[in-house]
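#struct-help
A.M.: can someone run this one for me? Single chain, 408 residues.
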Amino acid sequence: MRRAYAAGMKTSTGNSSKTFISPKTFLVSQFIRFAIYCVSLSALLLLVAPSREVARGAEPVKVAMTADRWQITGEGEFQQYKGMEALSLKKGAAMLNGLTFRNGTIEFDVVPLQMGAGIGFRWRDKDTYEYIYLRPSADCVAAGACIQYAPTTQGVLLSDLFPQYQSAATLHDGDWNHVKMVVSGQRMNVYVNGVKTPTLKIGRLEGDTMEGALTLQAPGYFANLTVVPDAVEGLASEPEKDPTTDDRRLVRNWQVAPASELAADKEPGFSDMPDSSAAWQSITAERGGLVDITRLYGMPLPRPRRSITWLKTTIKSDKNQSIKTAIGWSREVWLFVNGKPIYADKNLYQPPTARKAPDGRCSLENGSFSLPLNAGNNEIAVAIANNFYGWALILRLDDVKGVQLARK
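D.P.: on it. Structure tokens below:
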């Protein structure tokens, strides 16, 4: 035991002698060494602490509604409105100078004047950003559409493709409304007018960018913007699981042809489908089985000109049979099986009477038909035309017994 205490110790007279220290002195020295180690380890852990630790100490960034903080593209001015220093936007948008937003909490007050007043975030450019906006109307609560989230991709607002991302809210018509957004990775919770539970929950942000600028969007008045970087209130950053992941009935894998123009008085026939020499490419459905053509082509032609593309896939059946099939689309669709026309319909936004449920959005509620299949391989070809925002297709068989859908 004493040899351990004396390890490495020498006397002033040479190596042949050893100086022994007491157990008490040895324990004190060891305690000091351990304390130094703990302090060093704590400092290291602070350096590599996760973002939620930083968030607890994050300071709010309060943004003044003054000309030095905002770049207006459109019609807007800074003024007093209903007791607040406000930015009045009649047209266009205003971009916040000097701040890049990724995750955190955003709060602001807004008086929406018409449908569309809201905020763009993670703005990479005018064609790529996330967006929430208020849709005030006398019946917005009953319609469940007072507030909506939609991404802009390829310069197209995809509001028509995500009907699940809207909600009712108690909006003050002609007065201030307080909006709080908590953004974490691929999730977001939105609270309107001080409610304790989220007014709108987004389990999977659908945009194409993870960071960028903040923009306010007309028409409306805006005040009291505050940003707290990285303050996410414990909201997970990973997206919620797609509830349709294991749904084998969805037709997910397709080939898509280049887009072209469809004349206003034209109805496409099967003979109009591009042949194999065209630049067909693979396209796979997103969450919910949504085949989002907009992510590839945007809106190729200005409104009201019609763009058209073709999708095709193969379904193998072990016998001759007909299967009830649900279909969702935006805006016009023509479906062919083995070259024969089977289904055609329109889901237009204007006039309102031309909208399929729900409210002209792309959904499996849009329509259904009986899909005739021969024993063996069957070619399914779909022409999709669009002249208004996003375009997409969803196709789901009611039963896939004895059926094999195309794989990647």
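A.M.: thanks! The radius of gyration is 30 Å.
D.P.: also worth noting: Residues 78 and 257 are 49 Å apart (CA to CA).
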